[in-house]
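Title: Prediction job returns without error message
Component: structure pipeline
Severity: low
Priority: P3
Assignee: unassigned

Description:
Job completed but the reporter wants confirmation the result is attached to the right record. Sequence as submitted:
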Amino acid sequence: MQEDNLTLVNGFFLFGFNLSLNLKLFLLCLLLLVYNATICGNLLIITLVSTSRNLHTPMYFFISQLSISDILLPTDIVPNMLHILLNNGMFITFSNCMAQLYFFCIAEGSEMLFLTVMSYDRYVAICNPLHYVSIMTGTLCVKLVIIIWLLCVSLSLIYIIIILGLNFCGANIIDHLFCDIVPLQDIACSDTFTLKLSIYFLSVPFLVIPSIIIVISYVNVIRAILQISSNISRQKAFSTCSSHLTVVAIFYLTIFSVYIVPKKQQSSDVNKILSLLYTVFTPLVNPIIYSFRNKDIRKAVQETFKSV
């Protein structure tokens, strides 16, 4: 088998789903509906946080940044996915594949890190309320956001540079819905040790450390809530972090199912369905949870419609 240098590879064929025509049309309509709802929902949150004074707090500032990630992720994935459904697969050029992978890594990495700083914000608000204003200052929040975006943009580039050093040969068929690191690793002809090493190395700032911070933060939050004597105060304290905890649970369950569970324990179609969950449906669930379970956002929506 002849190995071609990566720069000579024209592209890859994304296989997608092997479904009947009726199922493809159903999935096509569903994706269009979900994508439009996702964009509208997250744009609404960004607009409300920007215009409503009641939402000018660290928590809602981070929620608005999370909404940016939730817009970036499906926008990077869904248009090509619709093309795949309509044409029984899709040929994607190598440069477009790398661009899709790059923005995918940025969106996923930023979502993990924003969920982490939001859990720390809830920890300070519940466990150290008297010093919350002095700790979570506007300057600190802006610095955290800038660091997160710069970190994601720069570290995601490492993946792309390493993949640029791989050789691909053969059919170059990716049995997936989009260009992801693991499928590209599977079809590479050259040694992927460096790529595997970088995946483990970069999982520390993107997965391991955020997971530890989130767990420690919520263990302390739950412990502090249980020590509150008043039932009303306890319920009020829990309601301030329940929405975020729900979002964290949904996001990490799907991520761990796709990337941590051994591939032998799940079929290719199951892996694709799980990928749909965290790339398409989770960005829709986030604004729904924050909207319907958050009194401040509901109030801001009502005030906005009254002023129109």
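Comment from assignee: result matches the submitted record. The mean pLDDT is 86.
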